[in-house]
Amino acid sequence: MSLASRIIEEDSRYLMQSFSRWYPLVIERAKGSLVYDVDGKEYIDMNAGIGVMALGHGNEKIIRAVQEQMNKFFHYSLTDFYYDLAVRVARKLVSLVGFQGKVFYANSGTESVEASLKIARGHTGRQYIIGFTNSFHGRTFGSMSFTSSKSVQRSAFSPLLPSTLLVPYPDRHNPLCREDCANAVLEYIEDWVLKKIVDPNDVAGFLLEPIQGEGGIIVPPREFLQGLQRIARKNGILLILDEVQTGIGRTGKMFAFEHFGVEPDLICLAKALGGGLPLGAVVGRSEVMDLPRGSHANTFGGNALALAAAEVVLEEVPGLLGRVNSLGKMIVDILGSTKSRYVEEIRGMGLMIGVDLRRDGEPYEEGLEKVLRRSFERGVLAIGAGESVVRLLPPLVIEEELAQRGSSIIREEIDRL
Ligand SMILES: Cc1ncc(COP(=O)(O)O)c(C=O)c1O
């Protein structure tokens, strides 16, 4: 029995098996954009630990910053105390979002989303939050109430949060929304939802991903986000963007909202922010971030080690945006040279790329599983999204040669279907 097989066997004995693993990778170590398994095999990382390791694995600057911080202190809870590192990272985040804002630190994506829901309700004094179908916002009760990319993510856990509504995300595969999706959805929200279901004065916020990640790398039309912002502003509703996956340079801009010409009121962050340590954040307009004393906090949010890593991430990522765009184009070109009749669409922005595999117009799940498993066997790590989309989220620092080799292998495996 290989070491990997033994660990997988014990994993099934000792860990709850509620995950959705694609293939038997048992990781031992990683460096840059390469991952090594316990049996010594090397892999090209086109996942970055699901969009987390933007600066690659074992980044020397992050290691040094965290080590220096370890020598000062690990943890001392912002809930009751102060430290300069927390202020410095918040100041940097605010300067990067480009509006007068304040920050709340969390430990994960779902916790950032939970905080944004509380901030929206607390600030507006309104109950309703409107989310969008096919979204992914996390697995705790508040965020799960808006997570709807697969029914298994919610079906066993009702009742969910009350005073929530889901409306269609403008995806042309949604049968209610084929042509001119953006306007169809905007009209539905304005003329049906806000007139017939809920009074706009009862709605605290719209919560959505500017590009859906887990749902299958769905990029909405630019005019959709702009129209939604117009409806939000007209009715005093907050625009809450979940940039947990799209944020921190992933799409070729620091934040995906910059592509769409909108200005959100609240932005949820996590994943890449902590450079591999658990860190989330909500960045919001100063006037919105006004929850009263004692009404929201946590023990670990803004942990000093995670913030030390984040300070490096926020310093380094802006300088990588040019290569994120050029490498993204290169990968899309390589994938686009496929001869496969199963590739319906290649979409995304920057280094957030999806290849939608369909057979006779229907999601080709088996094809996705084959491509991911065979690519893994050939030393390339990618995962899926939506029902049948190959999802690529490599480190933003991936070397051109590795990105080329990794995406060529994936293309060859798509061609083999
Ligand atoms: C857009 C988005 N929001 C929220 C989350 C939840 O983040 P976490 O798994 O850190 O709770 C994810 C995770 O994939 C995500 O992609």
TrEMBL record:
Keywords carried by this UniProt record: Amino-acid biosynthesis, Aminotransferase, Lysine biosynthesis, Pyridoxal phosphate, Transferase
Cofactor(s) for this UniProt protein: pyridoxal 5'-phosphate
InterPro entries given in the database record: Aminotrans_3, Aminotrans_3_PPA_site, Class-III_PLP-dep_AT, PyrdxlP-dep_Trfase, PyrdxlP-dep_Trfase_major, PyrdxlP-dep_Trfase_small
Pfam family, one: Aminotran_3
Molecular function as annotated in GO: 4-aminobutyrate:2-oxoglutarate transaminase activity; identical protein binding; pyridoxal phosphate binding
One GO-annotated biological process of the protein: lysine biosynthetic process
Keyword Mitochondrion: no
EC identifiers of the protein: 2.6.1.19
Group of enzyme by EC: transferase
Family: Belongs to the class-III pyridoxal-phosphate-dependent aminotransferase family.
PANTHER family linked: AMINOTRANSFERASE CLASS III (PTHR11986), LEUCINE_METHIONINE RACEMASE (PTHR11986:SF58)
Protein name: 4-aminobutyrate aminotransferase apoenzyme
The species this protein was found in: Metallosphaera sedula (strain ATCC 51363 / DSM 5348 / JCM 9185 / NBRC 15509 / TH2)
